[in-house]
Amino acid sequence: MEKKQPIAFCTVCHEYSHNVAAINQPHRKTKYGDKCKGVFSSALSNNDWILCSNCDGIGNSGGKCVQCDGWGWILNRKL
To answer: How many Cβ atoms are within 10 Å of 43's Cβ, its own excluded?
Structure first.
């Protein structure tokens, strides 16, 4: 089953979020526990994201998808 499209991304480490409350808020730690000084930027448009072609949006291709990091989606913006 295709994963839900993220709605925000960190401006520094590019981690994604599904949490609307995170938009414009500091991103203090990455999923690995490292410190991050970024802010979550909104990416609410369907044009902001493309479905991962490696895993077809499920986030898994024989293990966690390395192309989309398990999200099923890839940010479609120039950063």
So the answer is: 21
Give start and end residues of each alpha helix (H) in the chain. none
Amino acid identity of 50? I
- Find out whether 61 and 69 touch, Cβ atoms under 8 Å: no
Q: Cα(44)–Cα(54) distance, rounded to whole angstroms?
A: 23
Please report, as a single letter, which amino acid is at residue 41: S
Its pTM stands at 0.84
Q: Tens place of pLDDT for every residue, the chain, 79 residues? A: 889 999 999 999 889 999 999 999 999 887 777 889 999 999 999 899 999 999 999 999 788 999 999 999 999 987 6
Assess contact for 45 and 52: CB atoms under 8 A.
no
